[in-house]
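Fold this complex.
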Amino acid sequence: MGILLSIIRTSLWDFSRNLLRTFLTSLGILIGVSSVILLVSLGVGLKNYIGDQFENLGSNILIVMPGQIFGNSMSQGGNFSGITFTEKDFLNIAKIKGIKAVAPAYVKTVTAAFEGKTEIGSYYGTTADIFSMRNLEAEYGEVFLPGDVSKRKKIMVLGPKIAEKLFGNKEDAVGKTVKIDEQGFRVTGILRSKGGGGFGGPDFDSFLYIPYKSSPKINQEKKFSVINFQADKESAIEKTKDSVTALLEKTYDEEDFSVIEQSQIQETVTSIFAILNSVLVAIAAISLVVGGIGIMNIMYITVTERIREIGIRRAMGATRNNILMQFLFEAVFLSTIGGSFGLLLSYLIVLIGSRFFPLAIDVMSVAAALTVSTSIGVVFGVLPARKAALLSPVEAIRYE
Amino acid sequence: MIILDHVNKIYQIDGEEFYALRDISLEVKEGEFTAILGPSGCGKSTLMHIIGLLDTPTSGKLLINKKNVTKLDDNELSRLRNEFAGFIFQQFNLINKLTVLENILLPTIYSAKKYTYDPKTRALELMDRFGIINKQKSYPNKLSGGQQQRVAIARALLNEPKIILADEPTGNLDSKTGRTILDLIRELNQKESITVVLVTHDREIAESCRRHISMLDGKIV
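Structure:
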């Protein structure tokens, strides 16, 4: 007890006499710890954000796409061999038991014009099911109905982003006519914003939703690049997936299309970001090692400066272990100070930064940061402390 | 109390053997006041370090209270050093970042000894006796040389050692202060019968001691 107290007191005395040195030494660990915590927070935040985004896009959704998206082997992976689906495919899919809604989509980049103003947007030829399936609601006006599709009405529903670009005030768009390729479509509704469009998800806010039958000029053959469908419950996902696959295999080669679950896309996107994030965290961890070397360097200097003190303590009966513990404690103290302030700093940055970025402090990363910074003190402090402990008492006490 | 039996201390310098001590056999009896006299480099300090367990002989035996201590490990040596010997150095060797009182109490923090007295009370009594009681909270570098050496003596006495080892204790003091410090050490020997081994190059000091040993080139002459 007496030893510990004396060790703490002499360490504090030393630190207070060399405030600048103590600060600079801990700074390395401070920067390392805070960058690791920040990057982990960014990773966790991003994962949550992606999860929320996909949640927003509706549940139990499957997507039929051309090519092999998740190939079993490298040679098949990412084969986008361009088949398109037909109206017949989608009508047949709609008949399958367990499928609640089907929304095929023909997507094309087009120029939308209103009273001489033009904007680039994404034409999205589809059915009325898309709105219920994707939880899309009209903020102003109304979305179109299945009846509007069969009547081939020349109408459209605008995503809020494109509506704002064309009209300035979104509300003004309802009832106006927007031209695409010289065809006029009356705007019936403006959607509530879904956000997103960033991390791999589709940008629903920039689409121009038009009944697929209403625009023969743009999509003459009624082809679809994608067919979205929704299972009526989670347990039906696998079964409907198999049924749809079996159905399409009658028409297409099995390698030319894939039926994927939306959650699969989410997993892929999440894992890509997780890999990126862990690379960044690994790079940040290097700074922790550099910080540790800084501590080791200073501890060597400290030991050299205090050889005489070590000799005196040995003469008074201090064992090698007592001396080892004293210098080890100082190294751990330095690294823990750095770790704690690094934690504090990263907490403040997360507090402020979470308004602009998806950041979330992870309790595990906090515990890990403190454990790691303490261990760095031990690992990088042990060599200088050993040097101090192994000094011969006689040489130490004679040291000038 | 202390017996050195054919002790050699050999250093390797550039591959050549250098005898700091050559075949030293010596007995120090309890209550004796022994001076070791010799020019610098004669090995007198090395001899003192070996008696004080700060250093180990290359060959030969060191017996303390009939026990061979040359085979003890670091923990046992440290404990013996802590309880058996008290050191006084020419350079005082106080720790400047600790207060005077903390310096005097330094041996207690490394001690496994069961105290039959309160170490702090003893420290204050010693300070009072040496006329430095008002310096408790001062730092050593603010004290005069004589005062610093008194602090060092108080520190050496704290654990009630059997032997005081003094290495040129007056070497950094003016002659008047030196004499009072020497008188103090003599008083400890006479009144409290603490064994004293004093290392000096000053013939006058050595001859004033009851027993003196002369050394030259690592040998007793």
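Residues 2-220 of chain B form a domain with the Rossmann fold fold (CATH 3.40.50.300).
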